[in-house]
Amino acid sequence: MSFMEKMVRQCRKPTGWMAKFVGMGMNIGHSRVRRWGLNHVAVEPDASILDVGCGGGRAVHVLAQMAPGGQVYGIDYSQDMVQLTQKVNRALIEAGRVKVGHGSVSSLPFPDGMFDLVTAFEAYYFWPHLIDDLKEIRRVLRSGGTLLIANEAYEHERFAERNARWVQWGDMKIHAPDEYRAFLNEAGYAVVEIDVFPEKNWIAAVARKQ
User: Fold this and answer.
1) What does 122-182 look like in DSSP terms, one character per residue?
2) Per residue in 40-67, pLDDT tens?
3) How far is it, in rounded angstroms, from Cα 16 to Cα 21?
4) Comparing 4 with 27, which gets the higher pLDDT?
5) Pair type for strands 71-76 and 48-52
6) What is the pLDDT of residues 172-193, one digit of tens each?
7) What residues contact residue 75 under an 8 Å CB cut-off, 6+ apart?
8) CB atoms within 10 A of CB 133
9) Alpha-helical segments (H) within 39-123
10) By the 8 A CB rule, do 109 and 78 touch?
């Protein structure tokens, strides 16, 4: 098994000795697609934000900078990633601006209508029940709240071979842009925008709770 295959297999739920390397790799490797994705949404200074699948914690840090008067929460299925996110955001946690916890997108430990914005960077690939999980995110969004999904892989013939390897190694889901619109509509969202960056194979989906 190649090192790359081991890394992709770890992405679903980083654990053990590789978890720290995977998490820090996420912080560095996902930075450009994260910035690109965030250009598709307006973040209010006092926003309440949830990052689902917070991984290495850099997205939580960036979101806290974008909403200096708000509150940012991170949640991850991997306890190792929760610990890394807490370490990366220690000062913000101590200041009461960031909270990080262990949990699943399928059962979010938050009340209805809590968040203005929910983000998911490089995370949806691994959600166990996509439509139900999107509905669970919709539950915790306020009316008119926004969901941003940003990924560095979508179905495209130019990247078909690479994406097929990732799907096999990581037991991942990868969809075409039209499929994003379909599954977001099925989950009850109003789809605002589906944008792609074909040269990079990036995709951003912005949806609203009606």
Assistant:
1) S-GGG-SSHHHHHHHHHHHEEEEEEEEEEES----GGGHHHHHHHHHHHT-----HHHHHH
2) 999 999 999 999 999 999 999 999 999 9
3) 10
4) 27
5) parallel
6) 999 999 999 999 999 999 999 9
7) 50, 51, 52, 53, 54, 82, 100, 101, 102, 103, 105, 108, 109
8) 20
9) 58-66, 79-88, 90-94
10) no
